[in-house]
């Protein structure tokens, strides 16, 4: 499956010394993200409209920027861990010819590395595991998954566990 991934690493670009503080061994290369997304989209194929390929934007940022976005788009003036901006609307007519010729843009995922680091320490796992967990959650939102109630949240979390296992990350949600 063809996946075009635009990784915007604002977190690192804004302050490379932050990476040293967070541990360079926890950092995830763009190629690794691409491989993970390709694997995840294969698993989630039944949630995808048919297309020749898919395009996703991933932005790794800090608490300040994600707080601004959270306030602007969700009216919550506080940092959060992950935001998803889905490009697909369920009621839009599907143009099969267009999908066959160009990648389908699924949307944007924005993750606060600051919040991910705190959560990784609380959960007693690596920053890499937390980042993968949050990005998988964001991807599910791009594909129409949501968690308005406990039952759908549990279903979504179980799907995240499946996605992470496929890339070699074991995580327990119990």
Can you walk through the features of this model?
The protein is of the alpha/beta class and 174 residues long. 50% of the residues lie in helices and 17% in strands. It is built from eight helices and four strands; from the N terminus they run E-H-H-H-E-H-E-H-E-H-H-H. The chain has helices at 10-14, 17-22, 30-43, 63-74, 96-101, 113-123, 127-142, 150-166, and strands at 3-9, 54-61, 82-86, 104-112. Strands 1-2-4-3 form a four-stranded mixed beta sheet, sandwiched between helices. Helix 6 crosses helix 7 and helix 7 crosses helix 8 (150-166). The chain is globular, with a radius of gyration of 16 Å.
Strand and helix layout:
Elements: E1 3-9, H1 10-14, H2 17-22, H3 30-43, E2 54-61, H4 63-74, E3 82-86, H5 96-101, E4 104-112, H6 113-123, H7 127-142, H8 150-166
Helices, by number, come to: 8
Nearest-angstrom radius of gyration? 16 Å
Order of helices and strands: EHHHEHEHEHHH
Helix percent band? 40-55%
Could you tell me how far the N terminus lies from the C terminus, measured between alpha carbons in angstroms? 32 Å
**Major beta sheet, specifics?**
4 strands, mixed
Query: What characteristic shape results from the CA principal axes?
Result: globular
Gist?
The protein is α/β, with parallel strands linked by helices. It is built from eight helices and four strands, in the order E-H-H-H-E-H-E-H-E-H-H-H. Helix content is 50%, strand content 17%.
Task: Kindly list the characteristics that best describe this protein.
alpha/beta; 174 residues; four-stranded mixed sheet; 17% strand; single chain
